[in-house]
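User: Here's a protein and a ligand (iron/sulfur cluster). What would the complex look like?
Assistant: Let me lay out the input and then the predicted complex.
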Amino acid sequence: MTRKTSVRQGLLARRERFRRALLAWYRASRRRLPWRESPSAYGTVVSEFMLQQTQVATVVPYYLRWMEALPGFAQLAAAPESRVLKLWEGLGYYRRARNLHRLAKAVVAGATPREAEGWEQLPGVGPYTAAAIASIAFGRPEACVDGNVVRILSRLTRDGVLHADGARAARSHAALARGLLDAAAPGDHNQAMMELGATVCARRAPRCAQCPVRRFCAAAAAGDPERYPRLKRKTTESRSVVRVWCERDGRLLLHVNPPGSRRLAGIHELPTAEQAGLGDARAGAGPLVARETRGITRYRITESIHRARPPLRAMPGLVWVPIADLDSVAMSGPHRRWTGRILGVRPA
Ligand code: SF4
């Protein structure tokens, strides 16, 4: 028997005590979050979609606004896409909003699945989200394995494997997660694991002294939890994008992708120099009005916005929006921020 197998088996042999310690901690210390206060299938689905790639603190106000505007699958299914995107504005990764909209239409047209396999057939639902919905909303014994859970399990077992990426690490820990799952309270168990990863077993400086499962943890015993999980380092790629700021008669030039586009359909953005038909060359050498560098997945993108004269020829997707009406269109978060900043600093 390898060391890895014996550590896992030792943990599984003590699973009852592990579950009890975890659940007692969760029920006493969990954060009061709106989707936990009055749980419903719809609220669970909405919160799980919003929480993909977004922090809890950012999601809470969006969730509250969303539930007030679109309180159920039927209202969401009947809403126009422009309203859905507007409510999502600023959360990013807009494909989530479009998938959630399509999911609501499918649920209204058919039946609400109760099993994870049924949820996985619906738009935007992967294995993790399906397990979360099935366990939290329907009490099904499905184990969730996200980045938080991978971190905890790899520390509990001092997993020495170097995983190619998070998805492979999740697959490698799936059997252990299933073995530890409390089938009598799968929703609470899964939420407890995620809560532990988010609030105690942090990526840096885990608070092992406060951890309810410390006595089961091989990495805490060895004093090296931050070494786990072991994931191959991602290479980052730098890119630069030139955008243009064109105003005419109190209107601002924006670019919007048509419905059905794979990326950012219906979302308004400042056009790139190419979309505006201006070529790069720093957008006709107009003055720079804003610049920002940010990380998106494995890219480090620097976006420079230059003031430019309006394009001479019509280009697909370009629209003139009255500056007074900018609040009424759906705009991605960074573009809303840049637009506000540029308009705010403009001389009166
Ligand atoms: S003891 Fe420390 S490393 Fe182990 S699970 Fe708890 S917080 Fe994480």
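Summary: DSSP finds 16 helices and seven strands in the chain.
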